[in-house]
């Protein structure tokens, strides 16, 4: 019998590929942040467009690196739509909608793994970071399912809040730009939460959950927070690929 592909690939090569992917993702984050800063300082909507396209590229990065046709089609379609918005002077709304779409996508990722006969995403993370034996320990599997529910609900609520901000901020929200009176008039001071606070909230919740987990599962040993975050960042792309494969099989 021929050995599997994974058996023939050295572990060092897999680790090197993961490191390259992590570095590329980090570079993408820097580019996105630089474009965001340029957009704020210059007021040029095309920087907003490029920042939105860079953010979409970050989420499609695993598929783009593996030369998946669907990922490239989505990226080119997104580029065309953003160019169309920019040509009509509505480029900033494309960037405003990015945090909403990110939270909706992440909410779907967590919620998708809660359906029957699927393993919750937090359980997959625990298995990937600490071994599947960890899930066999008392209270761990139950905690993993409840935490997956908590993340899905939190991300869904945040998506709703952000969508409300995009629509109802006065005077430069989407409804106001269409000359429609928003049902809730939100002051422009809240715009900071759209592009900064919404991103800060996720790592803040991650740190709070880590502290709660150490207390709730205090009968178990836990890795240091910094090591946990580094391992999670390195394993996240492979976890997303496994969920995407599950979705494709079920579809």
TrEMBL record:
The lineage's top-level taxon is Bacteria
Q: Where would you find the membrane-spanning parts of this chain?
A: 21-39, 45-62, 69-87, 93-115, 149-172, 192-212
4Fe-4S as a keyword of this entry, yes or no, is no
Keywords from the named record: Membrane, Transmembrane, Transmembrane helix
The parts of the chain that form a coiled coil are none
Please give the name of this protein.
Ketosynthase
Q: Native species of this protein?
A: Dokdonella soli
